[in-house]
Each structure stands twice: as structure tokens, then as C-alpha cells.
Amino acid sequence: MADADAIVIGAGLAGLVAATELADAGKRVIVLDQEPRQNLGGQAFWSLGGLFLVDTPEQRRLGVRDSVELAWRDWLGAAGFDRAEDHWPRRWAESYVAWAAGEKRAWLRAMGHRIFPIVGWAERGGASALGHGNSVPRFHVTWGTGPGVVELFARRALAAETQGLIRFCFRHRVDELTRSGGAVTGARGAVLADDDAPRGVSSNREITGEFAFSAPSVIVASGGVGGNPELVRQAWPARLGTPPARMVVGVPAHVDGRMLGIAQTAGARLINGDRMWHYVEGLQNWDPIWPGHGIRILPGPSSLWLDAHGARLPAPCYPGYDTLGTLAHLRQTGADYSWFILTQSIIRKEFALSGSEQNPDLTGRDWRLVARRAIGRRATGPVEAFKQHGADFVVAGAIDDLLAGMQRLAGDGMLDPERARREVEARDLQLANAYAKDSQIMGIHNARRYLGDRLVRTAAPHRLLDPRHGPLIAVRLNILTRKTLGGLETDMDGRVFGDDGQIIPGLYAAGEASGFGGGGMHGYRALEGTFLGGCLFSGRQSGRAAAKAAG
């Protein structure tokens, strides 16, 4: 007799969504996770809680005209689907965009989800109407950030646990998917020693026992490889240049990619493994939680971006425009880092840090703290703390002192200070008029035509060398690991395909393990706010399909 109607591997967001959908249908679920209970919600807990939504009341209040047609055109421009194995990813993408323009917001709102009223404009693109990027702002920040998303499903899951429908088995590391007659029928592995390490901190791997569970459906929702830099380097594609020798790590160490290999051993087909999403604005966390802990800057459009030699990055490699295009360019410069040069006025208004713990006002749903963002000359507390304690910051009152500090910090002799000075001075000359030939300056003026950017995300245009806006600040930017865009190939029910092209009975996948749907619904690039949303959508699809299969 089976131990449950379904087994879910992974207690992150996708796993929680799948498990609660099963429990809502009256099915018995076992949730396995190698980490302690305090990590319930996985990576999503640490996120800013951004969600890709289309044609919302929040957009309309800010004067943004969006549509499913425009969003789908943007998605296709970003994804660049060009492979035979993109059949299912493209179908997932089209369904996801329709969901983001339809039921998604109401479904979440019915559970108590709320949205911060200013919609962010992430991944602006900057090339052409058919190219990569969001034509309009679509990044809806959850009021409560990542924990505010997780709590919607954790609350339901814990209630189902009390009712006996969900059984959580933490510290259970899956080492094998069991098969019988061609179907996946369960999972077995090692029981790990209890560990009271705080959320995100690496836990022990001491084995204290073994386990084996059986169920007619097994959903793999175990995440990707972002916490394992060596696996990231192994999968690094030639189109992005050589893999960096030095990276900071954007997710906890338990995002280790183990289950992808285990699923492959069981016959599952992994596709698009060379597609990945890593940021180029990473900071070394001065107060780290996991090994190599990095934090991403979510920049507004005004900082001057230089490579390690002091040369300005070409269009459209501007802050917040084209993450992977910028990454590919920087991998040709011979360095694993680059620089922002900015002012106190810019950092105050334009620097946000990704992560729930870096935004206590939004995470804590504290309007009084939020209001302080608009007062005075200081940036938010976490940003000012990085400016004071972070290893990647240089602050100076004059350009000569700033450039000398950058040279000292880099310590490799690569920076040409005269070249960097020319870039700063040339940029400043473009600010004499309300129009310019410089495409970044044009982009700043364009951004401020959007009410949300003018209010909270884009500083009034000014010269970097204007002392009224000082001090000057330089920030060394590191490459930061984040997401796996490829994954286990699935149909629209989340059922996993085998190497022979046939569905493996009993095996499903969701979240990052499935490339957020189909084996990579983002294609080559993402539009942001789509990772949490991909976990929600694929977890819902696979959970409902497994519940239906259970009868």
C-alpha cells in the first residue's frame, strides 16, 4: 500500500503550492526536504517578492497601458525560442503570460496577497520593439516581500498538516527515485541529523538513518543549481564568454542541483541546461548568511557603468536594461567585476537591494518606514550600511580621490583613471539640456516620464561632479549566481518526459527544477518577476494534475 497519494520533493514555494493544491483536493501528501523546518519556503523567502503581472489596477492608476498582446510580444523578444525542444517551454510561456494577465492577481488576492502601489520597471531592454525587455513597468512588489508570498501557502500547508493531509519530513534527503514497471513510484534516501541552524545557514550532512516512501505521484520541486558555483561553471555557455573565476552566490548552499541529476538517473530528460540567469550587480554581503553570500543591487537608470579598465559600457548595457547582454559584454573585458560611479543623490533614490531582509519596511509592512525613503539625503538603512561596511564601496568628495580609491580596492592595476575621468566628464556635458545624444541620458528622461520612476526610482538628472549631489560613490560590481532557466522537460500538467520522448508515469516537476515550466519557459532571458510567478504557476499545474490522477 502506498504511503501517500503524492510525494513532493522540496518545501520551497513551488513545492508548497503543489502540496496545498493536493491537500485542497483531499489527497494525502508527504513533503520531503533535506533542510530543517525553519527553511520552509526555500529561496522565495529571501526574495523581494516581485511578480510579473499584466494590465493591473496598479498599472492603470500610474497611467501604464499594458495588454496581453504587448506582454507576449515582449516575452518572445526576451525568450528567443529557437530550438526543437522549445515546444513545451513556449506553450508554458504563452499560458503563463495569459495567466499573469488574467487569474493570477485575483487568485493571490483571495488568499490575502497585497501589492505595493508603485509598479517597478525592470529589464527595460533598450534595443528595439522586437527585442528583449519590458515595454512598460510590470514588476509588482508584494507588500511583505518574499515572506508575504510564502506565508500564503505556508499557512495553508500547516493547516493541512494539522488535519493530517500533509506530512512534512524535514531532514530527509532524497538520493533516488524508485521505479517499478517503467513508472516512478516513490523516493528513498538518507535521514540527516537534526540541525537548529537559522534559516539560510548551511546545515549539517550527518546521516542518522534511511527512509523509503511510495506514492503513485512524485513531484520534483527542488530548485536549481545557483547555490553550487561549480555546477554553474560547468553549465556556463560559450555565448556568455568564459565562466568567471570569482562569483558571489545569490542563493543558499542547499540550492545544489542534486535532484536534477537524480531525476536524470531515473530516466528524466533535462533540456536547456545552458540557459541561466545571473546578475552583474552583485555585492559581497558584509553580514553573510550562507557561503559566498551576495546581494544584488536593483539599480535605477542613472549610474555610470564602467568596466574594470574604466571604459563605459555600450548601449544598451545600462543599469536595469539587459542583464544577460551586459553579462556577455563584461565577460569579454578580462575581469570578473565592473564599476558603478554615482552620487549620494542617485544612491538615495535609485539603489534598492534585492532580498526580503534588505527591505525591512516592505517586508515588515511598515508604512512609516516606507515614508522615510522620501525624506532627507540618506538612502535606506540597509543601503547606507553597505556603503559604510561593504567591501565593494568607495566614497570620496572629489573625482581624483574616488579614482585613487577604486585603484586601491581593485588592486590589479587595470583601471585607467584618465579614461574613467573622461567618461564622467563627457557624461556630465550631456546634462546641459533637457535632451541629449547620449542614449542613457535619453533613457533617464524617458524614465522620469513614468510617474512611478519619478516618485521613487529615478533621481532628477544632474552632473556627477556637481558637489551639491555628493559625495561621489564608486561600487565594485560582482557577478552573482541566481537561477537555472532550463530544467526537466514537462507537458502542461507538469508530467516529466523521459529520454525516449515519452511521459514517465508518476513523475512530475515544478518550479526551477522544471525551468519554471516545460523545461525552460523563459527561453534565453527573463523579464523579471517571473521566477516566483513561475513557481506559483507550475506548482499549481502539477499539484492539480497529480490530484486528478489520484482520482
Give a brief description:
The protein has helices at residues 13-24, 57-61, 68-79, 87-100, 103-109, 145-162, 229-235, 258-265, 323-330, 344-350, 360-363, 367-371, 381-389, 399-410, 417-429, 439-447, 451-456, 530-549, and strands spanning 6-9, 29-33, 50-52, 139-141, 166-170, 172-180, 183-192, 207-214, 218-220, 248-249, 270-271, 276-284, 294-299, 304-307, 337-343, 351-353, 393-396, 472-484, 487-488, 495-497, 503-509. With 551 residues, it is an alpha+beta fold. InterPro entries: FAD-dep_OxRdtase_2_FAD-bd, FAD/NAD-bd_sf, KsdD_DH, Succ_DH/fumarate_Rdtase_cat_sf.
Give the uncertain stretches in residue-range form. none
Mean pLDDT: 97
In the CATH hierarchy, the architecture of the largest domain is 3-Layer(bba) Sandwich
Provide the CATH topology of the largest domain: FAD/NAD(P)-binding domain
How far apart the termini lie comes to 16 Å
Can you tell me the CATH class of the largest domain?
A: Alpha Beta
Name given to the CATH homologous superfamily of the largest domain:
FAD/NAD(P)-binding domain
- Quick one: how many beta strands? 21
As a whole number of angstroms, the C-alpha radius of gyration is 23 Å
Describe this structure in words.
This is FAD-dependent oxidoreductase 2 FAD-binding domain-containing protein. InterPro entries: FAD-dep_OxRdtase_2_FAD-bd, FAD/NAD-bd_sf, KsdD_DH, Succ_DH/fumarate_Rdtase_cat_sf. Its cofactor is FAD. One of its GO terms (molecular function) is oxidoreductase activity, acting on the CH-CH group of donors. This protein folds into two domains: 283 residues, FAD/NAD(P)-binding domain (3-Layer(bba) Sandwich), CATH 3.50.50.60; 203 residues, Alpha-Beta Complex (Flavocytochrome C3, Chain A, domain 1). It is built from 18 helices and 21 strands. Strands 10, 12, 13, 14, 15, 16, 17 and 18 form an eight-stranded mixed β-sheet that branches. Helix 1 links the parallel strand 1 and strand 2. Helix 1 runs parallel beside helix 6 and helix 3 runs antiparallel to helix 4.
